[in-house]
Design brief:
Blueprint: E1 5-7, E2 13-15, E3 18-20, H1 26-39, E4 43-45, H2 53-65, E5 75-80, H3 87-101, E6 106-111, H4 145-157, E7 161-167, H5 171-180, E8 187-191, H6 199-207, E9 211-215, H7 229-232, H8 241-250, H9 254-263, E10 267-269, H10 276-283, H11 292-299, H12 311-314
Parallel strand pairs: 3-4, 4-5, 5-6, 6-7, 7-8, 8-9, 9-10
Antiparallel strand pairs: 1-2
Helix pairs in contact: 1-2, 2-3, 3-4, 8-9
Length: 320
């Protein structure tokens, strides 16, 4: 029986398969979360920037109230958005997340991007997205990442967060953060699919005892509804001959193959689906294994194609 959870360096268990809340529509979010819990999902990956934490919280709390699950059986992730990096604003942002979710704590809180935008008061615009208080112009704050991290460490000690981590960080940034962190990151979340495999980053981060969560496991599929130019001009992985041939051999769907490709290497995955059948299929991906030859064939698909790149926002050089 394959493992269904990852033991974090914080001592907590994180499910290997979760439900991603990115792009979950506000009108249906509460029902989707409730149904996902009913299906068996226990990890829910959200963020302040997704703008749906109130509705996600409604689904969670209804499931708890109806006796489907206990709070301690759930693993709820959120992320600190870029405008709240200044230490004096970190707890303010977390408190808004907890208020929206109607929870006393989150299980994991990540720095969403290693980028500090200018602070925007919650009553001015929330979530602020790319708004920095001046129309569509970007403005930044000079806040070292370690200062933001220290503020998060205090919130772990206060009991408002169980584990802290990072998202969209490069190896160099993690290497530097580890030098000053009292509490090491428990999780790194990255864009990760066969077109963007980042094997060195994965190997090094896992060697440091930091767990990895993959987002956009289906590659361009995650960005089609955003009319992302790269996604529109990239062949879908669901129809790639390599993925299809493996799926036919193991008698699974292409989506299940893509998810197992990550989870078999102890990388957590957070797909989402509105379809009840696919919701269950995405959860049931740890009952088969890919072969060494499968991994070798999939490794050939890596072309370093990144869809979520801050360089496209304002020439922010995170990944250059």
């Amino acid at each position: 029986m394959a493992s269904t959870a990852i033991k974090l360096n914080s001592g907590h268990l994180m499910p290997l398969v979760g439900f991603g809340c990115w792009k979950v529509d506000n009108a249906t979010a509460a029902e989707q979360i409730y149904n996902a819990i009913k299906t068996g999902y226990r990890l829910f990956d959200g963020a302040e920037d997704y703008g749906n934490e109130k509705e996600v919280g409604e689904g969670i709390n209804k499931a708890i109230k109806d006796g489907l699950v206990k709070r301690e059986e759930l693993f709820i992730t959120s992320k600190l958005w870029n405008n709240f990096h200044d230490p004096k604003n970190v707890e303010t942002a977390l408190n808004r997340t907890l208020s929206d979710l109607k929870l006393d704590y989150v299980d994991l809180f990540l720095i969403h991007f290693p980028i500090a935008f200018k602070f925007v008061p919650l009553n001015e615009k929330y979530p602020p997205g790319f708004y920095c208080g001046d129309g569509d112009k970007f403005h930044y704050e000079d806040v070292p990442l370690l200062e933001t991290w220290k503020a998060l460490e205090k919130l772990v000690k206060a009991g408002k967060i169980k584990s802290i981590g990072i998202s969209n960080f490069t190896g160099a940034l993690i290497y530097d953060l580890l030098r000053g962190a009292e509490i090491p990151p428990a999780v790194l979340q990255i864009e990760h699919h066969p077109y963007l495999q980042q094997p060195r980053l994965v190997e090094w981060v896992q060697s440091k005892g930091i767990a990895i969560t993959a987002y956009s496991s289906f590659g361009p599929q995650s960005f089609l509804e955003l009319n992302h130019s790269k996604a529109l001009n990239t062949p879908t992985l669901f129809e790639h001959n390599t993925i299809i041939s493996i799926a036919e051999r193991v008698k699974k769907t292409p989506a299940q193959v893509l998810l197992r490709w990550a989870s078999q290497r102890n990388i957590a995955i957070i797909p989402k689906s509105n379809n009840p059948g696919r919701l269950l299929q995405n959860l049931e991906v740890n009952d088969f294994d890919l072969t060494k030859e499968d991994f070798e064939e999939i490794s050939k698909l890596d072309i370093g194609l990144r869809f979520n790149d801050p360089w496209d926002w304002d020439k922010i050089p995170i990944f250059v």
